[in-house]
Amino acid sequence: MRSFWHLEKGDFFDGIEECKEHFLHSAQRIELKKSDIVFFEGDAGGACFYVASGLLRIFCVTEAGKESTFFLRTAGEIFGLSEVLQDLPRKVSAQALAASVIFRLDRQAFDGLLSRNYALARRVITVMGSRLRYLGDSLSAQTCDVRHRLCRLLLALAHESLRDPAAWERPLALPVSLSQGQMAAMVCSTQPTVSETLHQLQDEGLIDIRGRCIAIRRPQALLAALEAPGDRA
């Protein structure tokens, strides 16, 4: 499904393993407990981070106190790139959603790696381009109803398991477990609305819900529901 190219992840260092060795050798290893904060909005942006294991969210809090989650970061991903490249204050916050291990590399060391490795610099550009595309799609989706945004989120969460075209026709359990409140923060809605919409999708035979575990019965059918004309907000 090439229309989802910008969701493809893999390990940030796939194909440039030598750069990964240098990164990890120079970086500080940090163990996080669930709910630990990596940085807050406004903190100095003098480092980037590689996720060795676990799950983190990238989010912000509005003046009214409402949280919006922009990204989830899983094993193999890197975050904090935008600010470290320009040494700017953080525009978002980062928090562990599960016990995690990350590696922190400061700006000077990361700049040195970039200056010596064209392939690494190209990878950074590619990843940032994909993330801009994701944010652009997310912004466009805000004109659609919650059902559309939720279907889109479910497919995005499952995308790494859908690289095999045949997987689009098989049941698939989401690889991450999120609360309905966390999902609401990712689709700019409320927990009650997300709960109601999830149960509607289950009644239609598109998903199965067991506690915080969600399985997509047939991803291709969910994609069809996503691409169907939706109500506008």
TrEMBL record:
Pfam families xref list: cNMP_binding, HTH_Crp_2
Keyword annotations: DNA-binding, Kinase, Transcription, Transcription regulation, Transferase
PROSITE patterns referenced in this protein's UniProt entry, alphabetically: CNMP_BINDING_3, HTH_CRP_2
Domain called HTH crp-type: residue spans: 144-220
InterPro entries membership: cNMP-bd_dom (IPR000595), cNMP-bd_dom_sf (IPR018490), Env_Response_Regulators (IPR050397), HTH_CRP (IPR012318), RmlC-like_jellyroll (IPR014710), WH-like_DNA-bd_sf (IPR036388), WH_DNA-bd_sf (IPR036390)
Domain Cyclic nucleotide-binding: 3-131
Superkingdom of source: Bacteria
GO MF annotation, one: DNA-binding transcription factor activity
Cellular component, GO, one term: cytosol
PANTHER family referenced in this protein's UniProt entry, alphabetically: CRP FAMILY TRANSCRIPTIONAL REGULATORY PROTEIN (PTHR24567), DNA-BINDING TRANSCRIPTIONAL DUAL REGULATOR CRP (PTHR24567:SF68)
Official protein name in the record: cAMP-binding proteins-catabolite gene activator and regulatory subunit of cAMP-dependent protein kinases
Originating organism: Desulfovibrio piger
